[in-house]
Protein backbone atom coordinates (compact mmCIF):
# COMPACT_ATOMS: atom_id res chain seq x y z
CA UNK A 1 0.00 0.00 0.00
CA UNK A 2 1.51 3.38 -0.98
CA UNK A 3 2.39 5.74 1.81
CA UNK A 4 0.81 9.17 1.64
CA UNK A 5 3.42 11.90 1.64
CA UNK A 6 3.40 14.31 4.51
CA UNK A 7 1.52 17.52 3.87
CA UNK A 8 3.85 20.36 2.94
CA UNK A 9 5.15 22.29 5.88
CA UNK A 10 4.74 26.05 5.68
CA UNK A 11 8.03 27.85 5.25
CA UNK A 12 9.25 29.78 8.25
CA UNK A 13 8.76 33.50 7.87
CA UNK A 14 11.87 35.40 6.87
CA UNK A 15 13.67 37.25 9.60
CA UNK A 16 12.67 40.89 9.73
CA UNK A 17 15.06 43.47 8.36
CA UNK A 18 17.32 45.09 10.92
CA UNK A 19 15.38 47.77 12.79
CA UNK A 20 14.66 50.31 10.14
CA UNK A 21 17.87 49.73 8.18
CA UNK A 22 16.12 48.95 4.89
CA UNK A 23 13.71 51.87 5.23
CA UNK A 24 16.50 54.21 6.29
CA UNK A 25 18.70 53.10 3.39
CA UNK A 26 16.10 52.95 0.68
CA UNK A 27 14.05 56.03 1.37
CA UNK A 28 16.42 58.00 3.61
CA UNK A 29 13.65 57.91 6.19
CA UNK A 30 14.64 60.08 9.19
CA UNK A 31 12.44 58.12 11.60
CA UNK A 32 14.00 54.82 10.58
CA UNK A 33 17.47 56.34 10.82
CA UNK A 34 16.67 57.58 14.32
CA UNK A 35 15.94 53.98 15.28
CA UNK A 36 19.27 52.89 13.80
CA UNK A 37 21.01 55.72 15.69
CA UNK A 38 19.43 54.83 19.03
CA UNK A 39 20.33 51.15 18.64
CA UNK A 40 23.98 51.72 17.78
CA UNK A 41 25.10 55.06 19.26
CA UNK A 42 26.33 53.53 22.52
CA UNK A 43 28.69 51.05 20.91
CA UNK A 44 29.96 53.57 18.36
CA UNK A 45 30.61 56.15 21.09
CA UNK A 46 32.43 53.59 23.26
CA UNK A 47 34.67 52.65 20.34
CA UNK A 48 35.45 56.30 19.54
CA UNK A 49 36.17 57.04 23.21
CA UNK A 50 38.53 54.11 23.56
CA UNK A 51 40.37 54.93 20.37
CA UNK A 52 40.76 58.65 21.10
CA UNK A 53 40.96 58.73 24.87
CA UNK A 54 39.13 62.06 24.87
CA UNK A 55 35.44 62.41 25.71
CA UNK A 56 34.85 65.60 23.72
CA UNK A 57 36.61 64.25 20.64
CA UNK A 58 34.71 60.96 20.96
CA UNK A 59 31.39 62.82 20.99
CA UNK A 60 32.33 64.77 17.88
CA UNK A 61 33.55 61.64 16.10
CA UNK A 62 30.38 59.74 17.05
CA UNK A 63 28.30 62.45 15.43
CA UNK A 64 30.58 62.40 12.40
CA UNK A 65 30.13 58.63 12.09
CA UNK A 66 26.35 58.97 12.01
CA UNK A 67 26.44 61.89 9.57
CA UNK A 68 28.55 59.76 7.25
CA UNK A 69 26.28 56.78 7.85
CA UNK A 70 23.28 58.88 6.79
CA UNK A 71 25.12 59.93 3.63
CA UNK A 72 26.28 56.40 2.83
CA UNK A 73 23.23 54.34 3.83
CA UNK A 74 22.05 54.03 0.22
CA UNK A 75 25.32 52.21 -0.51
CA UNK A 76 24.81 49.74 2.38
CA UNK A 77 24.28 46.42 0.61
CA UNK A 78 23.40 44.31 3.63
CA UNK A 79 26.30 41.89 3.09
CA UNK A 80 27.09 42.30 6.78
CA UNK A 81 25.05 43.33 9.78
CA UNK A 82 24.32 47.04 10.00
CA UNK A 83 26.15 47.16 13.35
CA UNK A 84 29.25 45.67 11.74
CA UNK A 85 29.08 48.22 8.94
CA UNK A 86 28.75 51.09 11.44
CA UNK A 87 31.63 49.69 13.51
CA UNK A 88 33.92 49.62 10.46
CA UNK A 89 32.78 53.12 9.51
CA UNK A 90 33.57 54.35 13.04
CA UNK A 91 37.06 52.84 12.95
CA UNK A 92 37.71 54.47 9.58
CA UNK A 93 36.43 57.87 10.75
CA UNK A 94 38.63 57.80 13.87
CA UNK A 95 41.71 56.72 11.91
CA UNK A 96 41.07 59.26 9.16
CA UNK A 97 40.70 62.05 11.73
CA UNK A 98 43.89 60.97 13.47
CA UNK A 99 45.80 61.03 10.18
CA UNK A 100 44.51 64.53 9.49
CA UNK A 101 45.49 65.68 12.96
CA UNK A 102 48.96 64.21 12.56
CA UNK A 103 49.38 65.98 9.25
CA UNK A 104 48.43 69.28 10.86
CA UNK A 105 50.53 68.84 13.96
CA UNK A 106 53.35 66.93 12.18
CA UNK A 107 54.02 65.01 15.36
CA UNK A 108 52.28 63.32 18.24
CA UNK A 109 53.14 64.27 21.80
CA UNK A 110 53.06 61.09 23.91
CA UNK A 111 52.14 61.22 27.56
CA UNK A 112 55.34 61.15 29.56
CA UNK A 113 53.88 61.28 33.06
CA UNK A 114 52.69 57.71 33.58
CA UNK A 115 52.92 58.12 37.35
CA UNK A 116 49.89 60.41 37.20
CA UNK A 117 47.91 57.51 35.73
CA UNK A 118 48.76 55.04 38.52
CA UNK A 119 45.75 54.02 40.60
CA UNK A 120 45.33 55.75 43.94
CA UNK A 121 45.77 53.31 46.81
CA UNK A 122 43.24 54.59 49.31
CA UNK A 123 41.28 52.88 52.04
CA UNK A 124 39.97 49.45 51.22
CA UNK A 125 36.41 49.58 49.96
CA UNK A 126 33.82 47.04 48.98
CA UNK A 127 34.60 44.75 46.04
CA UNK A 128 32.19 46.49 43.59
CA UNK A 129 33.70 49.89 44.41
CA UNK A 130 37.19 48.53 43.85
CA UNK A 131 36.11 47.06 40.52
CA UNK A 132 34.63 50.37 39.40
CA UNK A 133 37.82 52.16 40.46
CA UNK A 134 39.94 49.62 38.58
CA UNK A 135 37.79 50.02 35.46
CA UNK A 136 38.15 53.80 35.69
CA UNK A 137 41.91 53.48 36.22
CA UNK A 138 42.18 51.19 33.20
CA UNK A 139 40.19 53.58 31.00
CA UNK A 140 42.33 56.48 32.23
CA UNK A 141 45.52 54.49 31.55
CA UNK A 142 44.31 53.59 28.04
CA UNK A 143 43.51 57.26 27.39
CA UNK A 144 47.04 58.17 28.51
CA UNK A 145 48.73 55.96 25.93
CA UNK A 146 50.35 57.62 22.92
CA UNK A 147 47.80 57.76 20.08
CA UNK A 148 49.37 55.19 17.73
CA UNK A 149 49.95 52.70 20.54
CA UNK A 150 46.45 53.27 21.92
CA UNK A 151 44.89 52.70 18.49
CA UNK A 152 46.62 49.34 18.08
CA UNK A 153 45.74 48.29 21.64
CA UNK A 154 42.05 49.19 21.29
CA UNK A 155 41.67 47.60 17.86
CA UNK A 156 43.48 44.38 18.84
CA UNK A 157 42.78 43.70 22.51
CA UNK A 158 39.37 45.33 22.86
CA UNK A 159 37.79 45.14 19.42
CA UNK A 160 39.41 41.87 18.30
CA UNK A 161 41.06 42.93 15.04
CA UNK A 162 44.02 40.86 13.80
CA UNK A 163 47.45 42.45 13.30
CA UNK A 164 47.18 42.27 9.50
CA UNK A 165 43.79 44.01 9.59
CA UNK A 166 45.16 46.77 11.82
CA UNK A 167 48.17 47.18 9.54
CA UNK A 168 45.87 47.54 6.54
CA UNK A 169 43.63 50.06 8.33
CA UNK A 170 46.47 52.20 9.63
CA UNK A 171 48.86 51.86 6.70
CA UNK A 172 51.61 50.36 8.86
CA UNK A 173 53.52 47.09 8.86
CA UNK A 174 52.36 43.98 10.73
CA UNK A 175 55.63 43.91 12.71
CA UNK A 176 55.07 47.50 13.77
CA UNK A 177 51.56 46.65 14.95
CA UNK A 178 52.93 43.78 17.08
CA UNK A 179 55.60 46.05 18.53
CA UNK A 180 53.11 48.81 19.36
CA UNK A 181 50.76 46.31 21.00
CA UNK A 182 53.60 45.01 23.16
CA UNK A 183 54.52 48.60 24.09
CA UNK A 184 50.90 49.42 24.93
CA UNK A 185 50.59 46.43 27.23
CA UNK A 186 53.89 47.27 28.96
CA UNK A 187 52.85 50.92 29.48
CA UNK A 188 49.46 49.85 30.83
CA UNK A 189 51.09 47.42 33.29
CA UNK A 190 53.38 50.21 34.48
CA UNK A 191 50.51 52.68 34.75
CA UNK A 192 48.41 50.24 36.73
CA UNK A 193 51.33 49.35 39.02
CA UNK A 194 51.49 45.66 38.10
Helix count from the secondary structure assignment: 8
Sequence of secondary-structure elements: HHHHHHHH
| CATH architecture grouping of the largest domain | Orthogonal Bundle
Number of E-type strands: 0
Look at the helices and sheets and give the structural class: mainly alpha
Number of domain modules: 2
Description:
By secondary structure, the protein is mostly helical. Helices cover 65% and strands 0% of the residues. The chain has 2 domains: 17-107, RNA polymerase sigma factor, region 2, helix turn helix motif (Rna Polymerase Sigma Factor, Chain: A, Orthogonal Bundle); 113-194, Winged helix-like DNA-binding domain superfamily/Winged helix DNA-binding domain (Arc Repressor Mutant, subunit A), CATH 1.10.10. It has helices spanning 21-27, 30-52, 55-72, 82-105, 127-143, 147-158, 163-170, 174-191. The longest helix has 24 residues, at 82-105.
Can you describe this structure in just a few lines?
The protein contains 8 helices and no strands. With 194 residues, it is an all-alpha fold. It has 2 domains: 91 residues, Orthogonal Bundle (Rna Polymerase Sigma Factor, Chain: A); 82 residues, Winged helix-like DNA-binding domain superfamily/Winged helix DNA-binding domain (Arc Repressor Mutant, subunit A).
Attribute tags:
mainly alpha; 194 residues; Arc Repressor Mutant, subunit A; globular; 0% strand; 8 helices; 2 domains
Topology at a glance:
Elements: H1 21-27, H2 30-52, H3 55-72, H4 82-105, H5 127-143, H6 147-158, H7 163-170, H8 174-191
Helix pairs in contact: 1-2, 2-3, 2-4, 2-6, 3-4, 6-8, 7-8
